[in-house]
Design brief:
heterodimer; A: 113 residues; mainly beta; 11 strands; B: mainly beta; seven-stranded mixed β-sheet
Chain lengths: 113, 113
């Protein structure tokens, strides 16, 4: 099994602060990385995707990838109470038969007013 | 509208019965995935399929079966061999390319009574 590890949290940050979410993965051939947000009882929705080393910014969100360290992170600037959710890290792994998309257990984020 | 449709949203099953969960997409995606999510847990891969008439086992395939007779459809059968079937089941689809995102249906919550 290809491992995707996340700290389960909860991670609590005050409104307006930066939230930092981390993810490590075990498979060195992994090439594509995704962050999903999931509200309780709902299905995951895509927040960010990143495919090459470095930073990728989209509004208040920045994804960072370091393939040498097998590490991907998500920064949320100016955190809002509506950002309170579980954040899932996903890693696409090439198998002989296609691409398997593996998820971590998620980090619960709580933004306090 | 384009998207992924899972049905039903809620499903109740008696112990010892097989039940089939529906997943249909009109996004022209080649790849489709089934996941199981237990309370407070991440997504665990059950089965995935890259093309019609072909599918692969994920990490927790025991007690489940799938078919992929049409590109648009990837139904999941939860058999009586699955000992703890109560869970939230999520279907996803994506283009069969490395750097593309997966999109989810709204999920089916299965309860064994």
């Amino acid at each position: 099994q290809k491992e995707v590890e996340q700290n389960s949290g909860p991670l609590s940050v005050p409104e307006g602060a930066i939230a930092s979410l981390n993810c490590t993965y075990s498979d060195r051939v992994s090439q594509s990385f995704f962050w999903y947000r999931q509200y309780s009882g709902k299905s995951p929705e895509l927040i960010m995707s990143i495919y090459s080393n470095g930073d990728k910014e989209d509004g208040r969100f920045t994804a960072q990838l370091n393939k040498a360290s097998q590490y991907v992170s998500l920064l949320i600037r100016d955190s809002q109470p509506s950002d309170s959710a579980t954040y899932l890290c996903a890693v696409l792994v090439a198998e002989d038969s296609g691409y398997a998309l593996n998820f971590g257990k998620g980090t619960s984020l709580l933004v306090t007013p | 509208d384009g998207g992924i449709t899972q049905s039903p949203k809620y499903l109740f099953r008696k112990e010892g019965q097989n039940v089939t969960l529906s997943c249909e997409q009109n996004l022209n995606h080649d790849a489709m995935y089934w996941y199981r999510q237990d309370p407070g847990q991440g997504l665990r891969l059950i089965y995935y399929s890259q093309i019609v008439n072909d599918f692969q086992k994920g990490d927790i395939a025991e007690g489940y079966s799938v078919s992929r007779e049409k590109k648009e459809s990837f139904p999941l059968t939860v058999t009586s061999a699955q000992k703890n079937p109560t869970a939230f089941y999520l279907c996803a689809s994506k283009q069969n390319l490395q750097n593309t995102e997966a999109f989810f249906g709204q999920g089916t919550r299965l309860t064994v009574v």
